[in-house]
Amino acid sequence: MRKSDIATNMLGVCTPGMHFVYVLPGWEGSVADVWVLRNAISRRHGLKVHHGKV
Description:
This is DDE Tnp4 domain-containing protein. The chain is an alpha+beta fold. The chain is about 20% helix and about 30% strand. The chain has one domain.
C-alpha cells in the first residue's frame, strides 16, 4: 500500500440473517473486487451464484 503496510483482502458472503455462508481470505495487496469475485466463482468448490435471486 502507499503507507508501506500490507493489505489483505477477503470476500465474505452472508445470508439476510447475517450468517456467513462463504469466506475467501488471502488476497494480498491492492486488487479489484471483480478479481476476487471471479476467483471465488471459478474455484472447484467455490461460490455458487443462483440466477434470479436478488
